[in-house]
Amino acid sequence: MVDIETEITINRPIDDVSAYATNPDNAPEWYENIHSAEWKNSKPLQLGSQIAFKAWFLRGELAYVYQITELIPGSKLVMKTANGPFPMETIYTWHFVDDNRTQMVLRNKGKPSGFSKLFTPFMGMMIRRANRKDLQRIKEILEKK
Fold this sequence. Notes:
By secondary structure, the protein is an alpha+beta fold. It has a single domain, classed as START domain (Alpha-D-Glucose-1,6-Bisphosphate, Chain A, domain 4). It is about 25% helix and about 45% strand. It has three helices and seven strands, in the order βααββββββα. It has helices at about 15-20, 25-30, 120-145; strands at about 1-10, 35-40, 50-55, 60-70, 75-85, 90-100, 100-110. The protein has a seven-stranded antiparallel β-sheet with strand order 1-7-6-5-4-3-2. The longest helix is centred in the C-terminal third of the chain and has 25 residues, at about 120-145. The protein is globular, with a radius of gyration of 15 Å.
């Protein structure tokens, strides 16, 4: 089992941070490994929306579809894989620090199948490192706006 949680404080109002992060069209801009996001249904994002992502992982392309299972605007987004190589859940939460600062938490939980149990801790380290880079990138993008 992999359960990784990372967080960062972004110097932007909570509505700006959550609006940017919940728009799948922005994912390739702030996720280092994601190179495309395709809506499987009409916009805007809502419960049940499905987004197909393509990412680079372990020197190969990984394709998966996330389905939105919980959406509380400005507070929380939960996505679960509808299909893909292993079940994963990604959770974004945003916490008010002050009028111009937001704490964003990114959590990934899943059970990598098709990998040996010895590889799971290594995968956890890779996910944690990628999440830190991704949160730093979203911080840089939003603080420049």
